[in-house]
User: What shape does this take?
Amino acid sequence: MQKLARRDVLRGTGVAALAAGAAAIPSIVTAYGGGELASILALYWQQVDEFNDAQHISDEESDAHAAATYEATLRRVIGMPARTSNDALAALDWLSKESEWNHLNLDQIEWNDNEYGSAVVSLAHAIRGYIAST
Assistant: This one.
């Protein structure tokens, strides 16, 4: 996957890098047993790692980088069902990791509170739907 260059984000061309990330989804889907939700969550964690490894000059640059990568990817999972066991497990892993990192307090999440809150509720529904269907 193409790495997002800071100056591209600042110039507003980070969209091309985001599109390159979206293009990588078919190969990631194959690697994760065909689960689309699992694949997109794997891309999310890859982008989080890349973000954490990047050197940001300013808060604005950091915010732009986050918005163009892992935050955009997170918005893609909202409303997506879990269709495979890999999807359900990836959703549980996401909930567990985000809770562990104190980004989420699962007792105080409300729908549309923020994109993390929306993702929590959506992933919980996806997991429940998958379990109910099997």
Notes: The chain has one domain: 6-133. Residues 6-133 form one domain. Confidence is low (pLDDT under 50) at residues 1-30.
